[in-house]
Amino acid sequence: MLKIGIVGCGAIATFISKAIARKKVSNAKVVAYYDKNRHKAEKLSKITNADVCDSIDELVKKDIDLVVEAASIKAVEEVATKALSNNKDVLVMSVGAFVDKELFLKLYNLAKDKGRKIYLPSGAIAGIDAIKSLTFGKIEEVVLKTTKPVEGLKEALKDKGIDADAIKEPTVVFEGDVFDAIKQFPSNINVSVMLSIASEFPAKVIIVADPNAKTNNHEIFVKSSIGTLKVLIENVPCEENPKTSALAAYSAIRIIKDISEPIKIGT
Ligand SMILES: NC(=O)C1=CN([C@@H]2O[C@H](COP(=O)(O)OP(=O)(O)OC[C@H]3O[C@@H](n4cnc5c(N)ncnc54)[C@H](O)[C@@H]3O)[C@@H](O)[C@H]2O)C=CC1
Ligand SMILES: O=C([O-])CC(=O)C(=O)O
């Protein structure tokens, strides 16, 4: 039985908790939660009967195998460092944190020293399996075009001084590299960092705010000497947090299932 601790008890943690409680993953159980808002952890503990912790330190000292970070980019360094130092594997949802190469190397080396694993789920995009394989050839171009309903981009647009309510037609609100994309849209474009890590190539990113969109769409283009990949995924947003696609949560659930079972399907 894979024992899990979850840091961050929002939309993704809710999906994971329900999937485990409903036995969609039968060889795993949630043992502990921590959220800076204790009330959110208490809500999820009612689903799984797991303990509610008062700190990350308390959670990583529990008898668990895997710590799931589903909180924020800012939380990743502390959660992953403490999990790995306490001999736990860690699954990171806020992959955008790894745009910081120093942090990536620090956690990579810590995991290596400790003999532990860092899991980065495909999240809200598809095609990571093929993109990883394409790195054995020469990658020439990586582009991500993300279109989201205006509502899902509202917070980030406000921070950029853009009035989301004034957007009446599909509008490009960002065009640039992955580094600026994740800085300006930290809760919307973790997928661009995932794509760049998988392809080992900095992605060009275009973000469109569409007042008529009902889904979070990600169009991926990767040109390489091995082949050209084009993927379009139209994701249903989570009710609890429309910025986040349900697929992102299900990709975490799928990794948990893969870790807990004797067979792993796909790359
Ligand atoms: N890799 C991917 O494809 C995707 C990644 N994400 C990222 O996954 C993370 C979780 O997403 P959601 O569940 O939708 O977010 P959410 O906003 O619904 O929930 C996050 C929870 O974490 C808590 N939290 C934030 N910082 C914390 C900290 N330092 N310590 C403890 N708790 C903390 C909040 O109180 C909240 O309850 C976010 O960073 C999000 O941007 C989201 C979608 C796709
Ligand atoms: O869930 C999505 O569609 C993508 C997302 O929010 C992210 O990558 O941060």
From TrEMBL:
Its EC number is 1.4.1.21. GO terms for molecular function: aspartate dehydrogenase [NAD(P)+] activity; NAD binding; NADP binding; oxidoreductase activity, acting on the CH-NH2 group of donors, NAD or NADP as acceptor. The active site is at residue 218. The gene is nadX. This is L-aspartate dehydrogenase. Specifically catalyzes the NAD or NADP-dependent dehydrogenation of L-aspartate to iminoaspartate. Belongs to the L-aspartate dehydrogenase family. It comes from Methanotorris igneus (strain DSM 5666 / JCM 11834 / Kol 5). Residues 8-121 form the Aspartate/homoserine dehydrogenase NAD-binding domain. HAMAP family: NadX. Keywords: NAD, NADP, Oxidoreductase, Pyridine nucleotide biosynthesis. NAD(+) binds at residues 124, 190. It comes from the Archaea. InterPro entries: Asp/hSer_DH_NAD-bd, Asp_DH, Asp_DH_arc, Asp_DH_prok, L-Asp_DH, NAD(P)-bd_dom_sf. The keyword Amino-acid biosynthesis does not apply.
